[in-house]
Design goal:
The complex is a heterodimer of chains A (135) and B (255).
Chain A lengths: L7 H23 L4 H19 L2 H10 L4 H47 L19
Helix pairs in contact in A: 1-2, 3-4
Chain B lengths: L1 H5 L4 E2 L2 E2 L8 H9 L1 E7 L6 H11 L2 E6 L6 H6 L4 E4 L6 H14 L4 E4 L11 H9 L5 E5 L10 H18 L11 E4 H5 L10 H11 L4 E5 L6 H6 L3 H17 L1
Parallel strand pairs in B: 3-4, 3-6, 4-5, 7-9
Antiparallel strand pairs in B: 1-2, 6-8, 7-8
The chains are: A mainly alpha (135), B alpha/beta (255).
Chain lengths: 135, 255
Amino acid sequence: MNPWQLNPFQFVLLLLIAGLLAGGILALLKGWLRRRDAILWLLFWTVGAVAVVWPDATSLIAAFLGIGRGADLVFYCAIPILSFGIWMLYIRLRRVRREITLLVRHVAMLEGELAARGDPASGPAASPPADQSTR
Amino acid sequence: MGRARNRCEHEVDGKRLTPSMPADTGKEAQIARSTYVVVPAFNEGAAIRDVLAELVRVYPNVVVVDDGSTDGTFDAARAVTPYVLRHALNRGQGAALQTGVDFALRRGAEYVVTFDADGQHRVEDIPSLLEPLAGGTCDVTLGSRFLGMQSQMPLARKLLLRMAVLFTRITSRLPITDAHNGLRAFTRAAAERLDISMDRMEHASEVLDIIRRRRLRFREVPVQIRYTSYSLGKGQSARDALRILLHYLIGRAVR
């Protein structure tokens, strides 16, 4: 198959991937991403671009691995990659929770210190308003 | 090896320690004055006033950490002790404990005791926790409901706790007999080394990990638990236990 005869679907996908790659290169040059992460990102989307332009490539690899179709190979690869992404999000969520705790602790300590010093203006009121909106 | 170093001697000057305080009331009172009792509380408005009133009679420095309660916990505590901290959001018992310990240290505590707000602990048990610390033989004492005397505990709870103990013995590698007892005492030096990062119930296992990692000398002291319908209702179910276990394992894995 001539890779230069693209159907509209491939054309749109390639444009998207080109944008993602450009963003990755920019992030790498500007130092927004860690070098390793940026290179992984570029590698991932380069492989994606190859698969879009030349779908038979995935079939070749699939056949080599003993998987029936190229589409199945892509599907099988997507599961661990997405799982990893969710795990990374979970780790980040944990870190955010931790930071919230440290912040809440800091505020509680400040209020407690002021109240213990007998500073009526700055200590917690007799009945501080509970932040109901967060529960 | 670490285990041997972690355990503090059960004997002081060759004589066995008794669970009661020595008759030297002057010293006892001095220790009580330099002790801060940290009480984490979440929606304990119904019980906390009586618990605190009993505490402040002996220990004037009681630090309550209201962990974002939505009932009258804050006001009830405020009526009894001046040290009431408030978490603006509910962050869990582990987080509340660490906040209270930090505050107690900042106020100059020599000893820090942790005490549950639901009335399950007995104030009379605190002296036997403080005694080994004051004697300089231990850095940490942990209340154990399984050591020595028995309190009237429902069978299902007993089994659940036994399993928790077995698990904790494996993960913490400390020869303990009770895993999840909220009654503990720390010297100032030990409390300064406390850095609880597991915000929720899994902190109980984390405290043991900290004891082992920091090589603190610890000892278990027999205490009694008052099982009332209120405190049992506040306890953890088997499902909670599984969730705590999962959180603990993940917490250890991703530190």
